[in-house]
Amino acid sequence: MILKFDSSRLLKHILMRSVSVLVISLCASLCEATELVYGIENEIKDYNISRSIDKNAFSLAELVTEGLFSQKADSSLVPDLVKSYKRAGKNWTFQLRSSRFSNGKLLGCDDVKAVIEEARLSPRPVKSRLRDIVDTRCDEKGNLVIETAEEAPQLIERMGYIIRVYDVSTI
Hints:
By secondary structure, the chain is an alpha+beta fold. The chain has helices at residues 7-30, 55-64, 109-120, 126-129, 155-159; strands spanning 66-67, 69-71, 77-79, 82-88, 91-96, 99-100, 106-107, 133-138, 144-148, 164-165.
């Protein structure tokens, strides 16, 4: 079997594809998105995900917040806002990466601590995931330090991607 190669058709196809990509790129840069539209099945009752038991609020929060860790497709957890961490007995130390909220405010250890403390007081099931925690504080280097009642090697898996960091003062 002999295949004939029509170089002029191939050249036209490549040219049209290149022009299409160029037009789409130009339109995308001219039409800058300024808002996110997200369809949900019913009204969100409370946007504060530490208080809410609304699955829609949590789904939306996953799009606009970051977690201490993120979950990969294989369910393993990898650091997200956490740059590094270590455990020494009942004390966990989390070094946070430099980050900002969407309003430009610097995200610091106190913000993460506030979210964890609010979640510990929450009526949501997340409260039970944090039951090992007896104290959270920020050290002099800006690291988050979590103390547990007993050695709790499972703390990362319990907190995991569930803790979503947001500016508590805005809700």
